[in-house]
Structures are given as C-alpha cells and as structure tokens.
Amino acid sequence: MIQRLYDWTLNLAQHRHALWALGIVAFLESSVFPIPPDILMIPMILATPRRAWLIAAIALVASVLGGILGYMIGALAFDTLGQPILASLGKADAMAEFSTRFNDMGFWAVLGAGITPFPFKVITIMSGWTGMPLGVFVATSILARGLRFFIVAGLLWQFGAPIRDFIERRLALMFTLVVVLLFGGFILVKYL
C-alpha cells in the first residue's frame, strides 16, 4: 500500500496543479500523511529549476501550517482523551514528567524531526500534547523545515539531475549528522 501511495504522490509532480498538490501533501505530512513532500519537490524542481525557490517556499509554508494542525491534534486529543485514560491507570504523574523532559529538549526534538527523516508528524503531535509553547514550536518548525526544503531546492537548482540520487539516498543521513553534531557541540559548550 505504501508503494502505491508513493507512486501516486510521485505522479502528482507532473500534474498541472502540482503546486497545489505539493502544498496539500506538505500540509498533511506534518500531521497525518506518511509520504514526505520531497517526493514531489524533487521532480518538480528538476522539471522547472527556475521555480525551485517557489516550490521550497510552498512546501515550507504548508508544512508549518500542517505542523500547527498536528500540534492542535496533540493538544486537543491529550486533553480530551489521553489525560483521563492516564489518570485512570495511575500514570498521570509519569506523563507529566515525560512532558517536562520533552519540553526541556523541545527545540532539538522539533529541529531534528524537521530536517531528518524522522516523521515530523510525531513531533508536531507530541509538541501539542506536552504543551510546548506554540511560539517556540512554530519558530523551530520554520527553521527546520526551511533548512530542509531550501537545501534540497538549492542542491537541485545548482546541480540538477545528477544530485538527485544523493538527495534521495544520502541527504537524510547528512541532515541527521548535522543535528547530532550541533547537539553534541552545544552539550560540549554547556559542560566544558
């Protein structure tokens, strides 16, 4: 089923309403959809490199708006369903402690999920669920998704089709390494 959904998403890149499709996919990917918008962005930018920045901007705006929807899902579902269930199981205190720990590292969680292959929707929902400040969530989402989409757009704009294989196979690893190095650097600065 995932392969069919992937193929369907890839075919959208050739449609005359591909920009709208990209916006919808980027919006939904941040809250419920399993296929990342990069699948549409890559063939769209290769087909029309002059529109690379517009394509990245649409993905960014739609993704952040979808992230806000994910945040609201987390905030509303936890208040109405999650908390009473946890209280009845005697786990409300454990979840409060988890919520505090998540929010202590929330910037890094959102940044990491926003630029790596980790499903962004998980972090958007958890951010709302744990009560992360909405402003911090939105600002970090803009930074993370902007980095991800504009780096992909810039690489495709500059190098074209030859860079496609690198992006599809190795860019997620490179983004993950950058986050690990940034996080490690801040840890070193804090404790040295």
TrEMBL record:
Residues that span the membrane, as ranges: 52-78, 105-124, 136-159, 171-189
Entry superkingdom: Bacteria
InterPro entries: DedA_domain, VTT_dom
Domain VTT: 36-155
Any one Gene Ontology cellular component term annotated for this protein: plasma membrane
Keyword annotations from UniProtKB, A to Z: Membrane, Transmembrane, Transmembrane helix
Pfam families: VTT_dom (PF09335)
Protein name per UniProt: Membrane protein YqaA, SNARE-associated domain
Organism of this sequence: Sulfitobacter brevis
Phylogenetic classification of the source organism: Bacteria, Pseudomonadati, Pseudomonadota, Alphaproteobacteria, Rhodobacterales
